[in-house]
């Protein structure tokens, strides 16, 4: 098991950008927070999830290399100064590279929890047609 989701070589392969180990470390700590997983807890993780964490870390490292270090980020709903406005919808928009955020959405535990109902499915306690009065006799209330 590696000690990071991505390496400097991975970033060069995925994003074609040069970063250093410090950028990888900062990116990985950010991805750990937003993915709610760490390398230590990745033993039973599938290859697909490890791939998306690698991609997310690579893009996040690019973001870390491109911005000045600012550990005092604030969540703004709206900010206007000298004709320039900033309005963030969520904290992740300030912290994550857009492609890193998209890669995190592909993780198996971040997916939809809704049940898929096949077309034409009729529960056992309902008639095939709502107009079938023979199956459900009418009774006064």
| Count of beta strands | 2
Order of SSEs = HHHEEHH
Structural class: mainly alpha
Biggest sheet features: 2 strands, antiparallel
What fraction of residues sit in β-strands? Answer: under 5%
Q: What's the N-to-C terminus distance?
A: 67 Å
Low-confidence stretches are none
Give the helix proportion (percent range).
25-40%
Gross morphology is flat
In the sheet with the most strands, the strands line up as 1-2
Mean pLDDT, rounded to whole units? 79
* Rg from alpha-carbon coordinates: 24 Å
Continuous helix count = 5
* Tally of individual domains: 1
Structural features, described:
By secondary structure, the protein is mostly helical. It has one domain. Helix content is 39%, strand content 4%. It contains five helices and two strands; from the N terminus they run H-H-H-E-E-H-H. It has a two-stranded antiparallel sheet with strand order 1-2. Strand 1 (79-81) and strand 2 (84-86) form a beta hairpin. The longest helix is centred in the middle third of the chain and has 20 residues, at 47-66. It is flat and about 75 Å long. The termini are far apart. 22% of the residues are buried. The mean pLDDT is 79.
């Amino acid at each position: 098991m590696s000690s990071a989701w991505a390496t400097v070589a991975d970033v060069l392969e995925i994003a074609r950008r040069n970063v250093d180990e410090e950028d990888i470390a900062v990116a990985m700590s950010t991805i750990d927070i937003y993915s709610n997983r760490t390398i230590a807890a990745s033993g039973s993780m599938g290859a697909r999830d490890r791939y998306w964490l690698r991609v997310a870390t690579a893009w996040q490292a690019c973001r870390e290399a491109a911005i000045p270090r600012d550990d005092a980020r604030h969540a703004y709903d709206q900010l206007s100064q000298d004709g320039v406005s900033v309005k963030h919808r969520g904290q992740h928009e300030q912290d994550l590279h857009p492609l890193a955020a998209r890669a995190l959405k592909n993780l198996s535990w971040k997916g939809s929890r809704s049940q898929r109902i096949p077309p034409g499915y009729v529960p056992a306690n309902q008639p095939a047609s709502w107009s079938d009065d023979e199956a459900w006799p009418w009774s006064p209330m």
